[in-house]
Amino acid sequence: QKEVEQNSGPLSVPEGAIASLNCTYSDRGSQSFFWYRQYSGKSPELIMSIYSNGDKEDGRFTAQLNKASQYVSLLIRDSQPSDSATYLCAGGILTGGGNKLTFGTGTQLKVEL
Amino acid sequence: EADIYQTPRYLVIGTGKKITLECSQTMGHDKMYWYQQDPGMELHLIHYSYGVNSTEKGDLSSESTVSRIRTEHFPLTLESARPSHTSQYLCASSGQGNSPLHFGNGTRLTVT
Prior knowledge:
The structure holds 2 protein chains of 2 kinds.
Chain A: E1 4-5, E2 11-14, E3 19-25, E4 32-38, E5 45-50, E6 54-58, E7 61-66, E8 71-76, E9 85-94, E10 99-103, E11 107-112
Parallel strand pairs in A: 2-11
Antiparallel strand pairs in A: 1-3, 3-8, 4-5, 4-9, 6-7, 7-8, 9-10, 9-11
Chain B: E1 4-7, E2 10-13, E3 19-25, E4 31-37, E5 44-51, E6 54-57, E7 65-66, E8 76-78, E9 87-94, E10 102-103, E11 107-111
């Protein structure tokens, strides 16, 4: 079992709809969670960080964390074609030296006109 | 916005050559990382450093080596490049505690 699991997709949504991306993690020691967006051929770009249970909103993005269920999600409201990308979920464990992140394989999102 | 720079952006080189991929950051971050990613595939951590003169191997075995002589600089070296080393190499850094990673633009390496 992978430490961080995501459905690879592709997830297709029409323009203007809500895209819902999900992620589960297996290590209960994970304390920080991140969503990155990665366009084809580009490097990952941080879009959301979440550290405590509940929702965190930033513009059209909402991250949700449920530590009891070991579940992290990302909602994208009013999806735009420019949101089409691969979204990477990452869980972090604080070690003696720093925050060790484990990445999921990513979910490909396609926003269709 | 993160200030982390990788050079070269693209590199095509012949088998057996020695190469060094450069990574520098201007944020004063202690922690730096190298990831390898093939097209459409997941990120694999190959090296990390939590400070000057500290380097560790990551989860994916790699023939590359790294050094951390200065806080801002974390170069990756391949002594003898092979076609199996063809991949995208991503450098990242992070601040204190539970901080996220910030990635550079990557180096796309092709070994012919």
